[in-house]
Amino acid sequence: MNKVFALAIFIGVIHFGTAWRSFMRGRGKDGNLGEPFSTKAVDPPAEQWFTQNLDHFNPVDGRTWKQRYFATSAYYKKGGPIFLMIGGEGPASGKWMVEGQMIEYAKQFGAMCFLLEHRYYGNSHPTSDLSVKNLVYLSSEQALADVAYFIQGMQAAQQLPDTSRWIMFGGSYSGSLAAWMRAKYPHLVHGAMSASGPLLAQIDFQQYFIIVEESLKTHSQACVDTIAAAIRQVHIMLRHRIGQQGLEKLFNFCDPIDSGKTSQKDIANLYETLADNFADVVQYNKDNRNESSITIDMVCDVLVDEKKGVPVNRLAEVSNMLLAKNKEKCLDYKYDKMISELRNITWAEQKNAGGRQWTYQTCTEFGFFQTSTARPNLFSETFPVEFFIQQCADIFGPRFLHTLQPGVIRTNTMYGALDLPNIVSNVVFVHGSIDPWHALGVTKSSNPNAPAIFINGTAHCANVYPPSKNDLPQLVDARKQVGQLIGQWLAQK
């Protein structure tokens, strides 16, 4: 047996995380909101620019840059509240100023609305490139300070009353930012809606694939059993050349498996990609992002259909279904290519995807590495946490082997992790049971001033997207509850 492929069958292979590959598809498994599916023939507002400090915590450094934002006063009534959607780890979209649940609340309360793009993502470029020396200004702390200065700047520029009440909105990472804004800047922020926000920084996010499996079981146990059987067949096929050729054809690999050129890292990336397919489907299941979303039911219907052949054939059909959806011609599993692209420091290569930027934040602040070791029988043991950590060093340099532990401790110390509901008010934490990220968020709260809404059967940030006639009753109720809470906050004296 060739040792490359023998070793790939069990642990001992290096792999990078799902965020990069999904970012290249347009949206990361980290959970960037992206943009809502446009159902209205209304052009979004033009982008605008706000002058920010490069380093908010060094008064000696006078450098500034231009941060992109979008705004609409279409529903604003004099004296009404100000709603601000905080951008996350990807480009901001002006479509959020046209539709989405925040706009529905704006109509209800007569609010002015803003969307502020996160520094280093999209077109908000604080520095000339994305070199490590420049990425030191990329952090959640700096992003929160950006929001604070933006609020003060808009308060003056729009000549808003001193009594104006600002409500933050965000989903996933930006949902965490929304809650942290209320905690860190209560004199500027009156309330916050935090959707699917992971408040606990954690290096080894083993719970992620546990919830992926449980979510797939909402279709059937047979769906999960088929995935496990298919992965076992992949193990066997990788052991010999005929099997390797069969996999190349079934899964439409961009590059053939070659014992002289295919590394252990390549094989690990292949395994992780197969796992990532299901992670993406589960995380965004029926979230109203667009009309063509592939759901748990769709992939599981394929997997349990024995007429489609043996399990590995069915797994390949699901993989190819997702390739077609993402307009990819073939399945790219080459590790070195991935690392090379993440080492690129030019804005032209990274601005749309944000892969290098988000990887930097996970390596210095959050971890969030979605490892396979909690479910080895389902997705194999080929991407344990140690090898995620190695990628930080492979991309940014050897010293990044040692940034995670202190970085995660610092993040949880600064923001309070899952204790945040006990020390904050006027924040609502919203999560869905299907979404794996709820494991790092607040799903129960004993503080009536910082309640949690846990929506059975919904996925990542579902309550943020535009309403649909197909929404579950509990999702409709959750949106109403959030609206009632906002009304209560605005009624406070």
TrEMBL record:
One Pfam family, short name: Peptidase_S28
GO molecular function per UniProt: dipeptidyl-peptidase activity; serine-type exopeptidase activity
Keyword Protease: yes
Keyword Cell membrane: no
Gene3D superfamilies recorded: alpha/beta hydrolase, Serine carboxypeptidase S28, SKS domain
Origin: domain of life: Eukaryota
InterPro entries: AB_hydrolase_fold, Peptidase_S28, Ser_carbopepase_S28_SKS
Transmembrane feature ranges: none
Any one Gene Ontology BP term: proteolysis
Entry keyword set: Glycoprotein, Hydrolase, Protease, Signal
Family: Belongs to the peptidase S28 family.
Name the UniProt record assigns to this protein: Serine protease K12H4.7
